[in-house]
Amino acid sequence: MYKPCVGCGWCCLTDPCMDSHRRYGYQRRCPDLRWDAAQGRYLCGLMLDPKTADEVRTGQHEGQGCCAPLNGWRDDVRNRDND
Fold first, then answer.
1. What is d(CA 22, CA 13) in angstroms, rounded to the nearest whole number?
2. Alpha-carbon distance 79 to 81, whole Å?
């Protein structure tokens, strides 16, 4: 079931991707995850960085939908940085 990414942050806050692990080691959350208040969603700094964007977008299958389409966070997109 395809559902587009809504920027809820669930994957990057609970189980960072291999690109994050390779760059930062195993951490609870990805240091490159950024809350964008204007857009009301999380953004991936690795996908926005011109030096890493192409590689990370390909590796994370950007544009192919959410990896957890039934995840409840999708319906409650908010800044969870202090949770």
1. 16
2. 6
Instruction: Report the predicted TM-score, pTM, of the whole model to 2 decimal places.
Output: 0.88
Cα 22–Cα 23–Cα 29 angle in degrees, nearest 5:
90
What average pLDDT does the segment 25-50 reach?
A: 96
pLDDT single digits (tens) 10-34: 999 999 999 999 999 999 899 999 9
Instruction: Report d(CA 45, CA 49) in Å as an integer.
Output: 6
Cβ atoms of 8 and 71 within 8 Å: the answer is yes
**C-alpha span between 42 and 77 (Å, rounded):** 9
